[in-house]
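Hi support team,

I submitted a single chain yesterday and got back a structure, but I'm not sure I'm reading the token output correctly. Could someone confirm the output below corresponds to the sequence I sent? I've pasted both exactly as they appear in my results page.

Thanks,
R.
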Amino acid sequence: MSMQTEFLIWDEQATDQLSKYIRSGEVVAFPTETVYGLGADATNPEAVKKIFLAKGRPSDNPLIVHVSSIEQIESYVTEISPAARRLIQAFMPGPLTVVLPSNGKISDQVTAGLDTVGVRIPDHPAAQELIQKANVPIAAPSANLSGKPSPTSAIHVFQDLNGKIKAILDGGTTGVGLESTVVDCTGEKPEIIRPGGVTQMEIEEVLGYPIELATEDVSEVQPKSPGMKYTHYQPDVPLILIDGDQAFFQAQIDEYRSNGEKVGVLASEELATILNADLIHICGTVENLSTVAGQLYQSLRVFKKTEVDIILAEVFPTEG
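Hi R., thanks for writing in. Yes, this is the structure output for that exact sequence:
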């Protein structure tokens, strides 16, 4: 599949054009507050098939549906539980997706044949403008080739998908830089089935009680969310997590280098400045872990352009 991909800078005329493409069954890339999305009309099965074709991704993983309001969510689900409604009111627009019972109006190509659908309201003016103008729900996974880092800029999208999609809307670099958190709200208690831009602690504060992270063997079950069944991104070279102080980290670097391997390091500003390696990329600070999450995919793309043999990555706290 090859076509001329239009590259448009975000303005009113650009979103007018992209909304027409969406309504006519085309696939376009657009910015959200998390990463760039690859969008198509979620009620049009033929349009949704083009998403999977462009990404080179299996079609048995469901897609997240992007809408512009809670009223629009209500028109595509059978019910919204009290817990789900609290989460929607607290975190939407924002990097949270809730899985709810579908009423069947969303294409089976989006839900992967499930009776549930993941929905969210993106917190990016370009995305909101596009959804409102298209006046349809937009199914949108991350706008990258399957197995590549999620894109945090329009240039990343162009590098992966030029010639494979109708248009790219350039709205600048995304803010969160990490996918939305996905919470399954169809059971007795909500359950996080994909960590992301909203933390478990933040969710528990809103609900007033602890919730669990999904631990089921997703290779044996039908996934309810993207990222549950297939490897979301796997670097071309080995990536090893290092949990230890500066001396321990440096010893690991030195050991690999003594074997003739070129070592890349992914670490916080605090640690990176006192390490010695072939390539060091700073991905944020321990004092502000959101900066680390926000730069994760961009950092991995940096290493993709280099010739390191192995990446050693700092282990960060899970809360903060």
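A quick pointer for reading it: Residues 6-213 form a domain with the DHBP synthase fold (CATH 3.90.870.10). Let us know if anything else looks off.

Best,
Support desk
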